[in-house]
TrEMBL record:
Entry protein name: N-methylhydantoinase A
Top-rank EC class of the record's enzyme: hydrolase
Hydrolase among keywords: yes
Organism encoding this protein: Sphaerisporangium rubeum
Entry's Gene Ontology cellular component terms: cytosol
Region (Disordered): 596-624
Length: 684
């Protein structure tokens, strides 16, 4: 009987689907328009489409990358949300970090955005723990009951609880949850010691409230999708792991970067298989572009991320998102200058060329006007109106006093610079030289601007995988089950016995979760790490910690790794300077349940020259219009080389190859794009 695993990535414009046959290794890909009103419709359409009309009987598993939680945070201020905190700390959200965002050097011009919970929706409860978890004042049960009843009477159904120093001992938070469950059983409750058991009360509070805010929506979505599927499925998490849908509803905040994380992991595997262990990944979609950096096969992780204006300190792949997708709108600022994004036309009505009522020029319309994309998408399933794009570009050009060609090219140039600035954020700002990293470009719009990015950033090469529009969905099938656990323990003199006890407790929690996911004990993998800093510093550096006995030698090894990581990140360290003590802050454990990943096959050498182009059409590049050859990617084989100007088309994506560039098919069927350098054998 046929057995397939399916990955479904729901984006703002398209839902991408990949199926892998577990017996033969055959990979099948497809795309279908997303359905923003109910993402489950697009999900089900994609699953049935990739199965070719067959039922779900032969499906061994489904992994889903979803933007439901992310979109709720980006598009709507959370409503009907309450907050319970320690007596005397009711203004913790108002005070925040007292920081003014970059670009507002004079804080008089900065208007503080609304808090995630307004102060009148905050209730406090008496009781106090110190930083070691010892009780200073007992928990006030009567105040807790009054708070719970007040939220019930106000109709508040999502509540976050964050008490001071609950990372050291969750007892007071657990009692508050019991009171809420008894007095207000309709409420959905998140407590900070479950969501993020580490110090820094402001970030812990907001992270907990974000979890509470998205819980009702995620639970409804997961329940509806489960009912329609009639089978279990898993959901991608921001940390680079997956979790069953039945578990993820209890920690929905972990899904806030679900789709982009899958794309970075899929691209990392594709690049490593092609011999590029360290790369930049660029995932270009209809609404935005997500970029990440992969070093030695692993995407970088961070706990300093945010979704919109909300800091979320959960572990997540370090991804920078910029509003530079195919649907990004071109507009004229009050000063009369051309701008592109971050606002997007989305999937509905979409760009002008979609013919669905769009009224503004988008990046996709500029590509259509310049002939760089075909007059249809998805192999003809979605026809594009070149006339609508032309009319829109010409109208915008008239307002700017430019030719239509310069206007369309300007839209693309601004979009390329928006993408390049995002790439600099994850490389140059982190001490990495962007010129050392090839780039993997994927997503439906990812390959469209890569030639300009090579010139702007000095990239050595760009790798475009087969079916680039489906790399995120493919990435969903490469991901292990993974849960992260953390415990704050601030000390300059770490006791190995104390560290061993904390790590053992965290590993027990991880093991319990892996058992619930169906992994036997002999398949459990535990990855330890620790956050350290020099005494007096405000923020710490995370380093991997070895497995095995936790003793003095273990402690010394982790400390040595911290010195080296600090030197590598900041250019200096104090390894041999006793005046700068090392302070331990957090101990962490990731519980991993490994899966069997799809195999990317190696393709045989071509037995003939590069095939003739399938057609030609006028395409505008930097030096004007060219009668440009158009190649079908399906006809290209290993070793074939295409020289620009040219266009390479496939289902779901297009690569415009500018003059002065070549694209060569490698052993894994990737297109490797280089700038031609006549003095160096034809490559940069």
């Amino acid at each position: 009987m046929r057995s397939v695993r399916i990955g479904v990535d729901t984006g703002g414009t398209f839902t991408d689907v990949v199926a892998v046959d577990e017996q033969t290794g055959e990979i099948t890909t497809t795309k279908t328009p997303s359905t923003p009103a109910d993402p489950a419709d697009g999900f089900m359409n994609g699953v049935h489409k990739v199965l070719g009309g067959e039922d779900l009987a032969g499906v061994a598993g489904i992994v889903h990358g979803t933007t439901v939680a992310t979109n709720q945070l980006l598009e709507d201020r959370p409503v009907n949300l309450g907050f319970v905190t320690t007596e005397g700390f009711e203004f913790i959200l108002e005070i925040a970090r007292q920081s003014v965002p970059d670009g507002y050097g004079n804080s008089y011009f900065w208007v503080k955005p609304p808090r995630i919970v307004p102060v009148h929706m905050v209730r406090t409860v008496g009781g106090r723990l110190d930083h070691l978890g010892q009780e200073v004042r007992p928990f006030d049960e009567d105040e807790a009951v009054r708070a719970a009843r007040w939220f019930r009477d106000q109709g508040v159904t999502a509540i976050g609880v964050c008490f001071l120093h609950s990372y050291a001992d969750p007892a007071h938070e657990l009692r508050m949850r019991e009171v809420l469950e008894r007095e207000h059983p309709e409420a959905v409750v998140s407590i900070s010691s479950d969501v993020l058991r580490e110090y820094r009360e402001y970030e812990r509070s907001v992270t907990t409230l974000v979890d509470a805010a998205v819980k009702p929506t995620m639970r409804r979505y997961i329940a509806g999708l489960s009912a329609r599927l009639g089978m279990p499925f898993s959901v991608m998490k921001s940390n680079g792991g997956v979790l069953s849908a039945t578990e993820v509803v209890h920690q929905p905040i972990t899904t806030v970067l679900s789709g982009p994380a899958a794309g970075a992991l899929g691209a990392a595997l594709i690049a490593a298989t092609a011999g590029h262990p360290s790369v930049i990944t660029l995932d270009g979609g209809g609404t935005s572009t997500d970029v990440a950096v992969v070093v030695d096969g692993e995407p970088s992780l961070t706990t300093e991320g945010s979704i919109g204006r909300y800091p979320c300190k959960i572990p997540m792949i370090d991804i920078v998102t910029v509003g530079a997708g195919g649907g990004s709108v071109a507009w004229i600022s009050p000063e009369g200058t051309l701008k592109v994004g971050p606002r997007s036309a989305g999937a509905d009505p979409g760009p002008l060329c979609y013919g669905r009522g769009g009224t503004e020029v988008t990046v996709t319309d500029a590509h259509v006007y310049l002939g760089r994309v075909p007059p249809h998408l998805l192999g003809g399933e979605i026809p594009l109106s070149a006339d609508a794009a032309r009319a829109g570009v010409e109208a915008l050009a008239a307002k700017l006093g430019l030719t239509p060609e310069r206007t369309a090219a300007g839209v693309l140039e601004i979009s390329a610079y928006n993408q390049s600035n995002a790439i600099r954020q994850i490389t140059v700002k982190r001490g990495l030289d962007v010129r050392d990293f090839p780039m993997v470009a994927f997503g439906g719009s990812g390959p469209l601007l890569i030639c300009r990015l090579v010139d702007i950033l000095g990239l050595p090469a760009v790798v475009v995988p087969p079916n680039p529009g489906n790399v995120s969905a493919f990435g969903l099938l490469t991901v292990d089950v993974k849960n992260d656990y953390v415990r704050t323990h601030v000390t300059k003199d770490l006791s190995p016995d104390t560290a061993a006890a904390i790590l053992s407790d965290l590993e027990d929690q991880a093991a319990d979760a892996l058992h619930r996911e169906g992994f036997p004990a002999d398949r459990h993998v535990f990855a330890r790490s620790a956050d350290l800093r020099y005494n007096g510093q405000a923020y710490e550096v995370r380093v991997p910690a070895p497995a095995g006995p936790v003793d003095a030698a273990w402690r010394d090894e982790v400390t040595a790794r911290f010195h080296e990581a600090h030197r590598r990140l900041y250019g200096y360290g104090y390894r041999d300077d006793p005046r700068h003590a090392v302070e331990w802050v957090n101990l962490r454990v990731s519980g991993i349940g490994p899966i069997t990943r799809p195999v990317i096959p190696e393709h045989p050498e071509s037995d003939g020259p590069t095939p003739e182009p399938a057609s030609t059409r006028p395409v505008h590049f930097d030096d004007g219009w060219h009668d440009t050859p158009v190649y079908r990617r399906a006809g290209l084989r290993r070793g074939h080389i295409v020289t620009g100007p040219a266009v390479i088309e496939e289902y779901g994506s297009t690569l415009p190859l500018h003059p002065g560039f070549t694209a060569e098919v490698d052993a894994r069927a990737n297109l490797v794009v280089h700038r031609i350098d006549p003095a160096n054998g034809g490559r940069r």
